[in-house]
Amino acid sequence: MPDSDYNKPICTVDAVLLRIHNAQLEVGLVKRADDARVYAGVLALPGGFVQTDKDQSINDTLLRNLKSKVGLTPAHTVKLEFDGNLSRDPEGWSITCPYLCFINQTSGKSEQLHWFPLSQFLAEDTPTALPFDHLKLVRDGFFRLYNRAKYSTEPNHFLNGAFTLSELQQVYEIILGKALHKKNFRDRIDESNSIEATGDSKIVKRSRAQLFANRQPMSTHFFSRVLQGAFDDH
Amino acid sequence: MPDSDYNKPICTVDAVLLRIHNAQLEVGLVKRADDARVYAGVLALPGGFVQTDKDQSINDTLLRNLKSKVGLTPAHTVKLEFDGNLSRDPEGWSITCPYLCFINQTSGKSEQLHWFPLSQFLAEDTPTALPFDHLKLVRDGFFRLYNRAKYSTEPNHFLNGAFTLSELQQVYEIILGKALHKKNFRDRIDESNSIEATGDSKIVKRSRAQLFANRQPMSTHFFSRVLQGAFDDH
DNA sequence: AGAATAGTGTCTGTAAGACATTATACA
DNA sequence: TGTATAATGTCTTACAGACACTATTCT
Predict the structure, then answer these.
(1) CB distance A5–B9 less than 8 Å?
(2) CA dihedral B161, B166, B168, B172 (to 10 degrees)
(3) Which terminus of chain A, N or C, has fewer Cβ atoms within 10 Å?
(4) Chain-wide mean pLDDT for chain B?
(5) What was the pLDDT predicted at A221?
(6) Nearest to B52 among A55, A93, A142 (CB)
(7) Which long-range contacts (CB under 8 A, 24 or more apart) does A85-89 make?
(8) Is B3 on the interface with A (CB under 8 A)?
(9) Contact A47/A130 with Cβ under 8 angstroms?
(10) Segment B53-73, tens digit of pLDDT
(11) Is A11 close to B177, i.e. CB distance below 8 A?
């Protein structure tokens, strides 16, 4: 093992913040400091260095950086695929522990964060540029979200408080990029047991809609039997 | 950012080596150095420190450590979920980038590696102890393998050269812990296009069986339509 | 002939998805 | 009365899984 820190890489956390706003997915970016050694003043994913004197865990690193640098606490987080190499950061050998973060009303208001439509980063021909390997991270995050929107109730985390089933369905439709059949969607959600009726209702356009809330604790429910994990049937 | 390396965590790679031997899954462990500062002489997952002067990438770190410390090169690797905290390593704040590694005949012969049945680490009541958080990593690795044995052809990597469909089926059965229907399995593999007939055949017990080989490059084919990723249908 | 294995054809139960209907609110 | 939405009942169909059958090889 190395006796000094000389050969240690830079260790960072990067956060792909996603929210649903105006019927579309948006990515949250922060402007890097004007005196940053690299990519000064450029919009980038929020994140920061692991600091062993401040954090108990890598999860702490994420939350500390998001709280201090953008003033938000994600409603939910998912670990993405780590990466580490000599080239991703001009400052030197670095490792990133990337997170996908679900942002909703409970996450707080941020002055520092700027929101951009996710679509401009998914375009195959001319995606908006991002520093480091942040474009790859954004795409990886969406890829995960997209797949989970098919089989899990994780997208529920984009909503908080009381909401209607139509509003929830819209969340899934935005992520999946296509219309869903109402009855099928309701059956899925019903089977998942991920939400519960608040007892209240509200008038939506020309009809009365029941209100629901996410059940606590919110589990990552997978719909399909075929996706059930190990340990449950042998 | 930190001006010194003082607050940097230890960065390691840990490898969950799996092979199929005597009709069961086995985990490869190495005995830690007798003069190691912690867990000296104890059996543990192979791995090592990221060394920025030797490695171009985290993948290099993995391959360098496996080559030098156990003398093997995995047939295939999959990134597992990163973790980092103050407590997993008695030496201090550390981050692990864990890999699941598929070992087969092409991986080479190792003097240093000791193989143990995976089952003894999966037992819910009295699993064999492992240092650090290595037990968790082993279980996470198997969990991934188990799930992928249902929908992908990744388990093919446990075989090399020419093999029969029955041999391949046995691999999947060992991972899934249950018998599979021959015709269904063959249809799955056929649809996946992951293997090709070598043209040769061999006599197995009382019948002649066709020989197959993994197709190059070997893609991680997912069987079910429902598991198809984003970007393919909109 | 009998046993064991490779290889292939066919059937069925289930559940995801498509479609249809009713109830309600309001202009 | 017409329209838009919530909410729920029913139908279709694709496919995973179950089952059956034939061919071949060897004792």
Answers:
(1) no
(2) -160
(3) C
(4) 92
(5) 80
(6) A93
(7) A85/B56, A85/B57, A85/B58, A86/B52, A86/B55, A86/B56, A86/B57, A87/B56, A88/A132, A88/A133, A89/A10, A89/A12, A89/A38, A89/A132
(8) no
(9) no
(10) 999 999 999 999 999 999 999
(11) no
Residues of A in contact with B81 (CB under 8 A): 79
For position B230, what pLDDT does the model report? Answer: 38
The amino acid at B52: T
Chain C, protein-covered positions (CB within 7 A): 2-10, 15-20, 23-26
**Structure confidence by residue, pLDDT tens digits, A58-91:** 999 999 999 999 999 999 999 999 999 999 999 9
Give yes or no for a cis peptide into B117 (omega within 30° of 0). Answer: no
pLDDT of A5: 59
B197 nearest nt, CA–C1': C7
Cα–Cα dist A180/A156, whole Å: 16
Nearest chain B CA: its distance from A166 CA (Å): 22
Indicate whether B196 pLDDT > 80. yes
Is the per-residue pLDDT at A4 higher than 70? no
- Residue A229: per-residue pLDDT: 39
Check: CB of residue B98 under 8 Å from CB of residue B80. Answer: yes
The Cα–Cα gap between B137 and A98 comes to 19
**Which positions 158-177 of A are in contact with B (Cβ < 8 Å)?**
177
Identify the weakest region by mean pLDDT among A45-49, A191-195, A228-232, B195-199: A228-232
Please check whether residue B226 touches A, CB under 8 A.
yes
Structure tokens belonging to residue A163: 């909401």
- From the CB of residue B198, how many other CB atoms can be counted at a distance below 10 Å? 13
**Does residue B19 register a pLDDT over 60?**
yes
The two three-digit tokens of residue B218, written as one number: 């070997």
Coil, strand or helix: which one is B37?
A: coil
pLDDT for B221 equals 78
For B82, residues 6+ apart whose C-beta sits below 8 A from its C-beta are: A58, A79, A82, A97, B95, B96, B97, B98
What integer is the mean pLDDT of A21-44? Answer: 97
HSE of B89, CA atoms in CB hemisphere, 13 A: 22
Q: Strand D footprint at Cβ < 7 Å?
A: A 164-166, 182-183, 186, 201, 204-210, 226; B 181-184, 187-188, 203, 206-208, 223-225
Select the residue from A8, A35, A53 to test the B interface by mutation, using most B Cβ atoms within 10 A: A8
User: Among partner residues B11, B37, B147, which is closest to A8 by beta-carbon distance?
Assistant: B11
The letter for the amino acid at A32 is: R
Interface check for B38 against chain A (CB to CB < 8 A): the answer is no
Q: What is the pLDDT of residue A171?
A: 98
Measured between CA atoms, the residue of chain B closest to residue A88 is B57
